[in-house]
């Protein structure tokens, strides 16, 4: 099952409630605030992964502007198109040299059949993650965000995401923000619904941030 419908999301939420009392509590809290975890599925394939690469380490506004120029210059953005584009055409869109190298590496891996982007939803989450990070320039966060938001993989989990780490700290009353390896250990109890748990934690982080901004520490 992939996270492509409210029914799939509900199945994951029900399973998490049964597996973990803390998760059951925060699912209730976010629901009470009308902040239930959204599907937010993006387009899969090369363009979807490229958009995530573009958004790395820049502001949302900058990522939107750069991606807009990329799509305007290359309306049918796929692996063959990127492989055939010259560096200058990519640079004028606002892409840095490292991002150009990453996109070319992805395009080459797709063209050679080493990275079957559209098939990864059917892989075990760990195997899908490893297939992505095997491409030079694709890090763990990028891999997991692609699996979760572009493919709707129910067990993808971005342990390196700071918002997830802080949300877990708050939910589980931890003294410090868990490191990625520590968060992965905590997340083992949520398999095979770690992707749903991630969406719940993001929603919970949003609720807690709004409470803090409003001065409500209760």
From TrEMBL:
Keyword DNA repair included in the entry's annotation: yes
EC number: 3.2.2.21
Pfam family, one: HhH-GPD
Residues in HhH-GPD domain copies: 54-206
Enzyme's top EC category: hydrolase
GO molecular function: alkylated DNA binding; DNA-3-methyladenine glycosylase activity; DNA-7-methylguanine glycosylase activity
Superkingdom per UniProt: Bacteria
One cellular-component annotation, GO: cytoplasm
Assigned keywords, A-Z: DNA damage, DNA repair
Protein name as annotated: DNA-3-methyladenine glycosylase II
């Amino acid at each position: 099952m992939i996270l492509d419908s409210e029914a799939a999301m509900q199945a994951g939420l029900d399973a998490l409630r049964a597996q973990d009392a803390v998760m059951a509590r925060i699912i209730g809290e976010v629901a009470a605030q009308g902040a239930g975890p959204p599907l937010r599925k993006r387009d899969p394939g090369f363009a979807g992964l490229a958009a995530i690469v573009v958004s790395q380490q820049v502001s949302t506004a900058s990522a939107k502007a750069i991606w807009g120029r990329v799509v305007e210059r290359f309306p049918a953005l796929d692996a063959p198109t990127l492989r055939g584009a010259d560096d200058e055409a990519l640079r004028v869109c606002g892409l840095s040299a490292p991002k150009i190298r990453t996109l070319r590496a992805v395009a080459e891996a797709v063209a050679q059949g080493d990275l079957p982007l559209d098939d990864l939803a059917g892989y075990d989450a760990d195997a899908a993650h490893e297939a992505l990070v095997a491409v030079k320039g694709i890090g763990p966060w990028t891999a997991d965000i692609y699996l979760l938001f572009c493919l709707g993989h129910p067990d993808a989990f971005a342990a390196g995401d700071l918002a997830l780490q802080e949300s877990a700290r708050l939910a589980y009353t931890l003294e410090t923000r868990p490191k990625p390896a520590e968060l992965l250990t905590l997340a083992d109890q949520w398999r095979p619904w770690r992707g749903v748990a991630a969406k719940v934690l993001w929603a919970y982080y949003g609720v807690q941030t709004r409470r803090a901004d409003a001065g409500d520490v209760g």
